[in-house]
Amino acid sequence: MRIDTNKLAAYYADAPADVSLADLDLARMPSHVSIIMDGNGRWAEARGLDRSRGHVAGVDALREAVTTSVRLGLDAFSVYAFSTENWRRPQREVDLLMHLFATTLVKELPLFHQENVRLRFLGDLTALPERTRKVFQQGLDETADHTGMTFALAVNYGARAEIVRAARMIAEEVAAGRLAPADVDEELVGDRLYTAGLPDPDLLIRTSGELRLSNYLLWQLAYTEFYVTDTLWPDFDRWDYLRAVVAFQRRSRRFGGVSGA
Ligand code: IPE
Ligand code: IPE
Ligand code: MG
Questions:
Q1: Distance of CA 70 from the midpoint of ligand 1 (Å)
Q2: End-to-end alpha-carbon separation of the chain, Å?
Q3: To which H or E segment does residue 247 belong?
Q4: Is a pLDDT exceeding 90 seen at residue 202?
Q5: Taking the domain 30-158+200-249, which CATH number applies?
Q6: Distance CA 25, CA 7 (A)
């Protein structure tokens, strides 16, 4: 994707002391950045607020991260919003999250139009409340012909469930005679995942300091660079995002080979 350097410079004015746009190498930009947005609950608890307030604040951080991703010229930006394990949370919190997904999506459609962002979802949406599903479908329909960045929202997503689903689909195709076992290769498996057609993430960011994947994109992260920050998700802003991308650009990605070869 092309970067609008004027817009980028305006977006990244007023730099803090430790990082600035000059640190960014525009020739080494990631194509796909993914974020495990974690720490909403701790953000709220630290302020003596209900966890739900953390999720509401997290929406603002997500809006900024989408805009940042567009300004950085990414092809794809994905976020982990709700895992298959998050159903274990108190019903009240689950209900609030489902409600937030629906209301936020409607509210942000103008941003997706303005920035030419195409929406997609990763995960099993059939288990979501009807209103949430309807709004998600509306988002898909309204952005289907957008040609800019893809924004992928992982909701009721679990990597193991995704791989099981792909295996089952492939088994059915083999059983029906449409595929031979020898046709099954990495590309074919990748095409049966929710992320089909998206490049693998170059950079995975996790906020709030946890050093785990929590069942996120197990297949797709095979060669992704990881960046973990202690910043809690509602506090994560364009500067934290820039720090992560700058750190990513300083890594040597060898993909099993040797440096510089
Ligand atoms: C991430 O924040 C948001 C979701 C998982 C939906 P958490 O709600 O996990 O926040 P912590 O980890 O409890 O602080
Ligand atoms: C991972 O965060 C899921 C999302 C960010 C949606 P969690 O807060 O659910 O992960 P654990 O429970 O700490 O592993
Ligand atoms: Mg958490």
A1: 25
A2: 27
A3: helix 238-249
A4: yes
A5: 3.40.1180.10
A6: 16
- In whole numbers, what is the pLDDT of the chain averaged over residues? 97
Q: Binning pLDDT at 50, 70 and 90, where does residue 251 land?
A: very high
Distances (CA, A) of 194 to 5, 102, 214, 220: 32, 20, 17, 10
Amino acid identity of 115? E
For the cut 70, the answer to whether the pLDDT of residue 195 exceeds it is yes
Residues 126-164 pLDDT 10s: 999 999 999 999 999 999 999 999 999 999 999 999 999
Distance, in Å, from the CA atom of 245 to the CA atom of 152, rounded to the nearest integer, reads 19
Residue 116 CA to ligand 3 center (angstroms) comes to 31
97 CA: nearest ligand 1 atom: 6
Catalytically active residues are 38, 86
- CA 89 to ligand 1 center in whole angstroms: 10
Question: Does residue 82 have its Cβ closer than 6 Å to ligand 2?
Answer: yes
Task: Give yes or no for a contact between 256 and 228, defined as CB atoms under 8 angstroms apart.
Answer: no
| Residue 212 CB less than 6 A away from ligand 2 | yes
Closest C-alpha among 118, 82, 116, 76 to residue 203: 76
Strand arrangement of the beta sheet that strand 203-206 belongs to: 118-122, 150-157, 76-83, 32-36, 203-206, 225-228
Burial 143-168 (b: 16+ CB within 10 A, else e): beebebbbbbbbbbbbbebbeeebee
Per domain, the residue ranges of the chain are 30-158+200-249
pLDDT average, residue stretch 204-218: 98
